[in-house]
Design goal:
Largest sheet: 22 strands, antiparallel, barrel
Distance between the termini: 58 Å
Low-confidence stretches: 1-19
Number of strands: 56
CATH class of the largest domain: Mainly Beta
Strand content: over 45%
Mean pLDDT: 88
Number of domains: 2
Structural class: mainly beta
Helix content: under 10%
CATH architecture of the largest domain: Beta Barrel
Number of helices: 12
């Protein structure tokens, strides 16, 4: 055959092949009650063709090659169903499929990376799936990551603050870095998105400790648009993403249209939120020592009558919120579409703390040729948040409350025409609420295009291009005179421009050598670019009523960075008898953040999955009567984590001035041209076992992760001419186990009861730092110590006798006698034969990492389609540093101060004691274990006769609650929050942080 003939055959072969095809159509229903099943995955085995059933259970798969074909239907909560049909050219084949309730998930189809959809039974690693219904139906959530709480084994998901639109932190199988990030990589429909949580202006933790943001960018996406979420927790699953996947990958797939008549869905939801607790403050009308010292100039003495002011009712409020959504989906044989819009108006439980978001999403799929599809999708987001300062900020609203004795009256003074100044901090909490401004506005576009060409039934070529582009503007205004009579006012107005671009070219081919042997080959190329720019403008000494950056003193700066990554990958999956699956792959990647000599890195993965339950020797043997399904799996993989800075490999320079002239000065941090990724290797083993006709399913996994080449800031000798250098030195490990037990307790046509229990335990350990004696302190007390979990609390402890009892002594400081005060431990050293005490002694006093996490979800389906679900979510064995209690006690605002005032304890036991409990941090480390009634939801369908009167096909009323109750021994408002947001190391710190609201909601959903 000549080259010309071969080329022409290659050009026209797709048309020849696809001209002689048929189609398969039908309906998927529940075998018990005949109700239609939406979102069932229907695929033609041995090909790349498939679809999802629509709301009526209908499905249609075009372009099916003629011949005998096996139709496979899968859906979460149901057993796999197979049907064999004969497909002929041009004629549709109709096949209806009834599915039976089951706890098994082996037949579920998942997508790892941009590879072809694959049945879970073939994967050697654990992949967690959360359905779109579970995300969309999560009550009173404004962000996708909130909806995942309690639904993923091995994921520690925390809401950092009760701010509306607030940030959520996710740890998949522990923390894998020290200086780098710890959050997973997020991918939406193949588009790698930014989930930035770095504050442009620090409104939470003090700016000198790093910008802890009050929100993260995943809050921009509407949970109602989610079709399903896949969580790649292990390196073997996430290795496809190379040097960005050390912390795992969360893949979000959004809803798409399906062929059929147009379907309109409208929904409305209203909710009411309130603080679960309030601070317990001094209310006794008698002055204490905290009042006499904290309220200067008033001549207050302990024991005198004193009016108390608890202004929390003026701070907290009942927050009413609403969400409105409208979507349109449908299409013809060659064109499908999904269009949706939503408006969310969320009020915070503190006054003047609000969040508003407009979200528009559209997806259109066009079949250009019988074997060529093009999908275009885009998401436009506009949001505005009115934040309040909180945490250790001296201008925080709650901060001002906990620092101030309740004898201070902060209410507006009509005589002076202003709010009184706070005697401790200066800012008045009521003035902060009414006069400070901290808005954040965002305009964002997330979208892409995906082209798929199927030249052969066994071959698929796919090209995807995606972009995430946003502009974020923040303003923080402190008007003149709000902090003191001499305060001239200040304003900050940074603007951030971020753009992430990725494009992927992949090919997938299924080789069927015989009925027993099949090979699936995938290969591809990826290029990504992540650019970020921040412009900062600020001013102080403001004129009256100034709200723009203008004043006597002005400043401006600019930051810009870009990281580019390019990679190739290949994967092979060999199948024997559709029971034994061997997988191997390699990702070969380069990044501009790596040193030139370390530019290219390889990340391999291998694994095996063996469906033992289908082997004849087990089915015919004694174990066949024990298990109804059994799968064994094992996987090994490597991933990487990029350095925390884009340009640490260079010798950088900083701007300076000399004699009024511009100049450059070399940075004190020396560049490292050999910098390479933090490398992680992980192996995992697991089993999936089913009993009692798949009504009980156990999924168990053990994993062992080791992260080497951790980037640390290493001190250099003075002779080097620099102070420090970022080097690949550290090592840490994570080892743990995950269990999921799914049961179908009752399965009847009129009553179904399902349960899902998850358990996960992780042990983190720092194996090596620059030197074994190193202790890196982050935030207040969180430390990185060799041989310990990352982020342990490290601080002062009580001095104790041989029996472990605290030692108390009288102490004189500055001529004042403090009786029976606790003593802080001092280390003793021998110098020249003389025992000398050091001034302080620090010890490991707690661990914010939980020993284990658990969640229990019960779902009950009642007659007439009524459904009730209850989710309990808990963590156990973690500690919380209660800095709120530390401050309220020392400054005389805590309820415990009443013991001093009444004489139930020694004077200065709590308040204003510089040598007492204030510096013994052991006192403020509390057990942070909790169980939360995370979700309760009741779904009630409206009768069909009533719905038809308004021309609708169906309608549902939904009553729900979130964070309704917390069982805990923690004495603060909420053990879940964290002052330092998504910080990698600083965890478990509560310092005047807004608690998560208790929320009740009611919603109506109508389908036309």
């Amino acid at each position: 055959m000549t080259f010309r003939r071969f080329a022409m055959l290659g050009l026209f072969a797709p048309m020849v092949v696809t001209a002689q095809t048929g189609s398969v159509q039908g309906r998927v229903t529940d075998a018990a009650n005949g109700q239609p099943l939406a979102n069932a995955q229907v695929r033609i085995e041995g090909t790349v063709f498939g679809t999802l059933s629509d709301a009526s259970g209908a499905f249609a798969v075009p372009n099916v090659p003629p011949g005998r074909r096996t139709i496979v239907a899968r859906r979460i909560g149901y057993g796999e169903e197979r049907r064999t049909v004969d497909v002929s050219s041009g004629a549709p084949v109709t096949v209806d499929i009834a599915m039976t309730v089951s706890a098994t998930t082996l037949g579920e189809v998942v997508v790892t990376g941009v590879a072809t959809p694959t049945a879970r039974r073939e994967l050697p690693n654990s992949v967690e799936t959360v359905s779109g219904e579970a995300v969309r139906d999560a009550p009173a959530v404004s962000a996708i990551d909130q909806a995942l709480q309690g639904k993923i084994a091995g994921a520690l998901i925390s809401e950092n603050s009760g701010q509306p639109g607030g940030g959520v932190s996710i740890r998949l199988r522990g923390t894998n870095s020290i200086l780098g990030g710890a959050e997973p990589l997020y991918v939406v429909d193949g588009v790698i998105i930014d989930n930035n949580a770095e504050a442009l202006v620090s409104l939470g933790a003090n700016a000198t400790r790093g910008g802890a943001a009050l929100s993260n960018r995943l809050a921009d996406l509407d949970p109602a648009d989610v079709e399903r979420i896949e969580v790649l927790k292990g390196a073997a699953a996430a290795a496809l993403y190379g040097s960005r996947a050390n912390n795992g990958v969360i893949q979000i797939f959004t809803r798409r249209g399906r062929a059929g008549e147009a379907r309109i869905t409208a929904s409305t939801e209203v909710s009411m939120g309130e603080t679960p607790e309030k601070y317990q403050l001094v209310s006794i009308p008698t002055a204490g020592v905290g009042d006499s010292i904290g309220l200067p100039g008033r001549g207050i003495r302990p024991g005198q009558p004193l009016e108390r002011f608890d202004i929390q009712d003026q701070i907290f409020r009942t927050a009413y919120s609403t969400t409105q959504r409208l979507s349109l989906a449908g299409g013809a044989t060659n064109t499908t579409y999904y269009l949706a819009g939503s408006w969310q108006d969320e009020a915070g439980i503190v006054r003047n703390n609000d969040y508003e978001r407009l979200n528009f999403r559209g997806t259109v799929t066009q079949q250009i040729r019988p074997n060529v599809d093009l999908t275009v999708h885009g998401n436009i987001i506009r949001s505005k948040a009115d934040f309040i300062t909180e945490g250790e900020q001296t201008v925080g609203v709650l901060t001002s409350i906990i620092f101030t004795p309740t004898g201070f009256n902060p209410n507006f003074d009509t005589l002076t025409g202003r709010y009184p100044y706070n005697p401790i901090l200066g800012p008045n909490p009521l003035e902060i609420l009414n006069r400070y401004e901290a808005p954040e506005e965002l305009a964002r576009f997330v979208g892409g295009a995906e082209g798929t060409w199927t030249p052969l039934p066994s071959l698929t070529l796919k090209y995807l291009v995606g972009i995430d582009d946003y502009r974020r503007e923040v303003r923080f205004l402190q008007p003149p005179l709000v902090n003191s009579a001499t305060f001239t006012g200040s304003i900050q107005n940074p603007v951030q421009f971020s753009r992430q671009f990725n494009n992927d070219l992949t090919a997938n081919h299924i080789w069927s050598f015989s009925d027993r042997v099949r090979l699936n080959t995938g290969a591809g190329f990826r290029f990504t670019s992540n650019s970020n720019e921040v412009l900062r403008a600020a001013a102080s000494d403001l004129p009256p009523e100034q709200t723009l950056v203008g004043g006597a003193i002005q400043s401006a700066s600019q930051e810009r960075s870009e990281v580019r990554t390019m990679g190739l990958f290949i994967e092979e999956r060999l199948s024997f008898n559709e029971r034994l699956f061997l997988t191997g792959g390699l990702n070969f990647e380069a990044s501009s953040a790596f040193g030139e000599d370390s530019r290219w890195q390889s990340f391999p993965r291998v694994g095996v999955s063996w469906v033992v339950g289908e082997e004849p020797f087990l089915q015919e043997g004694g174990l066949g009567s024990v298990f109804t399904s059994l799968r064994l799996r094992a996987a090994y993989g490597q991933t990487g984590g990029q350095p925390p800075g884009a340009y640490f490999r260079f010798a950088n320079f900083a701007n300076t001035s000399f004699s009024g002239r511009a100049g450059l000065v070399e940075s004190t941090i020396r560049g490292n041209p050999e910098l390479k990724p933090e490398r992680q290797r992980e192996w995992e083993i697991g089993l999936d076992a089913g009993w009692w006709r798949e009504r009980l399913l156990l999924e168990a996994t053990y994993y062992d992760k080791r992260t080497t080449d951790l980037v640390l800031n290493v001190p250099l000798p003075a002779s080097s001419g620099a102070l420090r250098q970022f080097q690949n030195i550290g090592v840490l490990t994570n080892k743990g186990a995950e269990f999921t037990l799914s049961t179908i307790n009752v399965a009847r046509p009129s009553f179904t009861w399902r349960s899902r229990l998850t358990y996960a335990a992780n042990r983190n350990r720092i194996e090596r730092l620059t030197a074994s004696s190193d202790t890196i302190i982050v935030g207040y007390l969180n430390a990185v110590v060799e041989g310990q979990p990352i982020g342990v609390f490290y601080g002062g402890v009580y001095q104790r006798d041989a029996s472990g009892n605290r030692i108390h002594r009288d102490t004189t400081i500055g001529g004042n006698l403090y009786r029976n005060m606790p003593r802080r431990l001092r280390d003793s050293v021998v110098v020249g034969g003389v025992v000398t005490s050091r001034p302080f002694a620090n010890r490991i006093i707690g661990d914010p990492n939980p020993d284990f996490t658990m969640a229990l979800l019960n779902t009950v389906e009642l007659p007439r389609g009524i459904e009730l679900s209850v989710l309990l979510d808990g963590r156990f064995g973690n500690d919380v540093a209660n800095f709120t209690r530390r401050i309220t006690e020392f400054f005389g605002a805590d309820k415990n101060i009443e013991k001093e005032i009444r004489g139930d304890t020694v004077p200065f036991a709590y308040a204003r004691n510089p040598v007492g409990r204030i510096n013994i941090y052991e006192e403020y480390i509390e057990d942070g274990s909790f169980v939360k009634l995370r979700e309760v939801a009741l779904s009630i369908p409206i009768s069909a006769s009533l719905v038809r009167r308004i021309g609708a096909n169906g309608a549902t009323i939904r009553l729900a609650g979130r964070n309704l109750h917390t069982w805990t021994d923690y004495t603060g408002l909420d053990p879940e929050v964290n002052l330092f947001s998504e910080s990698t190391v600083a965890r478990g710190v509560d310092f005047a942080t807004l608690p998560l609201p208790r929320t009740f909601s009611a919603g109506l959903n109508i389908n036309f």
